[in-house]
Amino acid sequence: MIGIPANKNRKDRKSEEGVGRVRFPNADENEQFALVTQLLGANQVKAMCQDGKERLCRIPGKMRKRVWIRVNDVVIVKLWEFQPAKADIIWRFLGNQVEWLKRKGALSALPI
């Protein structure tokens, strides 16, 4: 079989090699880092936010079946302006990105 790559069934290794671009929360948009503490079902999670408050967070429809969120994942949440006790998850970080953020000191306020 000539012409078939040996690693055709493996995942793309680009995400494992380097960190790439890492998204940071925008304070003007009420975004902050959070750590997922509990999965509640029906696209709801509890997350410990950077400001020390635990919030009920919603997984929006565009992320629901594309990005799987688990306990102890580091995410970016966007606080609701009309109800600050709730938030939307807008980004999930991968393992190598979390390690990079820890080394840079960006996650010092989270209980990781």
Please characterize this protein's 3D structure.
With 112 residues, the chain is an alpha+beta fold. It has 3 helices and 5 strands. A 5-stranded mixed beta barrel has the order 1-2-3-5-4. Strand 1 and strand 2 (44-49) form a beta hairpin. The longest helix is centred in the last third of the chain and has 10 residues, at 95-104. The N and C termini lie far apart (48 Å).
Shape: globular
Task: Count the E strands.
Answer: 5
For the residues shown, what is the average pLDDT? 87
The end-to-end span amounts to 48 Å
Please report the number of helical segments: 3
Strand content range: 25-35%
- Helix and strand composition category: alpha+beta
Please list the strands of the largest sheet in the order they lie side by side: 1-2-3-5-4
Question: How much is the radius of gyration in Å?
Answer: 16 Å
In N-to-C order, the SSE pattern is: HEEEHEEH
Largest beta-sheet characterization? 5 strands, mixed, barrel
Q: Fraction of residues in helices?
A: 10-25%
**Which blocks of ≥5 consecutive residues have pLDDT under 50?**
none
